[in-house]
């Protein structure tokens, strides 16, 4: 079950009056709580949608309730909820496919299988109006970054390449919740959630994927020239990595070839 929870601003954005008749996708919430992950034995994917105005243009922010993975959509016309749903699905699929191919965890055939599984679990989106303070605080932070981006560049990330790059940058930032006070990375959590729920990820492969993300972030740090910024980011990363590795066997501090690791496991 796919639940697109809408703030009042988003619900108002999706609601229009045409020829004297009110049209809206908003319905009664299909699950008791916004944080439900399972309802009537059905897996639930829950997102919070918010609407803002930037440079006099409509901007929609979609954030996964549990991983805090965010995507930004600019230029959608008021009331066009079907276009938003289509763009949301396309962007999510493209972003996850990019990661899957980057990590050599899926090819076109296996990703097509994941799309079919997604469609089986979530045959249609359910739009409803309700919110969550914790998720909203992170959405507000995303909104600040969008406004700053627009101020610095003079435009919004409307085109596919800009939007995908902006998503990637947003989701590489650490976030924290009551459950993960030391922080986590939304891109890492969403990809693991995606490939676990819709793919065939082996539980033994999760540490390898986390290590891959770890190495990718370390390479990014090396490209930064400001020593103080490096120290700040490094300290932040170490706190998150320590939490992730707690209770796990120590992992080698080198880049892991996931494809080779899978091959080795199959030979064994």
From TrEMBL:
InterPro entries: DUF6933. Residues 4-189 form the DUF6933 domain. This is DUF6933 domain-containing protein. It comes from Vibrio aerogenes CECT 7868.
């Amino acid at each position: 079950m796919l639940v697109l929870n809408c703030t009042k601003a988003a619900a108002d954005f999706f609601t229009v009056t045409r020829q004297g008749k009110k049209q809206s996708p908003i319905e009664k919430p299909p699950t008791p709580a916004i944080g439900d992950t399972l309802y009537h034995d059905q897996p639930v994917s829950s997102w919070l949608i918010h609407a803002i105005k930037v440079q006099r243009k409509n901007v929609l922010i979609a954030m996964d309730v549990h991983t805090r993975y965010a995507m930004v959509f600019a230029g959608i016309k008021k009331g066009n909820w079907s276009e938003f749903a289509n763009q949301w699905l396309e962007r999510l699929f493209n972003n996850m496919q990019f990661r899957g191919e980057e990590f050599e965890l899926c090819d076109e055939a296996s990703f097509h299988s994941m799309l079919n599984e997604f469609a089986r679990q979530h045959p249609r989106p359910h739009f409803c109006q309700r919110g969550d303070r914790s998720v909203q605080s992170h959405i507000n932070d995303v909104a600040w970054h969008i406004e700053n981006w627009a101020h610095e560049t003079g435009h919004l990330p409307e085109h596919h390449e800009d939007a995908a790059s902006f998503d990637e940058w947003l989701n590489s930032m650490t976030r924290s919740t009551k459950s993960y006070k030391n922080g986590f990375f939304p891109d890492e959590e969403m990809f693991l959630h995606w490939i676990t729920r819709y793919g065939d990820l082996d539980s033994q492969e999760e540490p390898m994927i986390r290590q891959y993300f770890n190495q990718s972030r370390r390479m990014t740090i090396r490209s930064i020239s400001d020593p103080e910024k490096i120290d700040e980011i490094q300290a932040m990363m170490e706190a998150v990595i320590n939490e992730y590795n707690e209770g796990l066997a120590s992992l080698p501090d080198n880049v892991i070839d996931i494809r080779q690791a899978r091959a080795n496991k199959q030979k064994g």
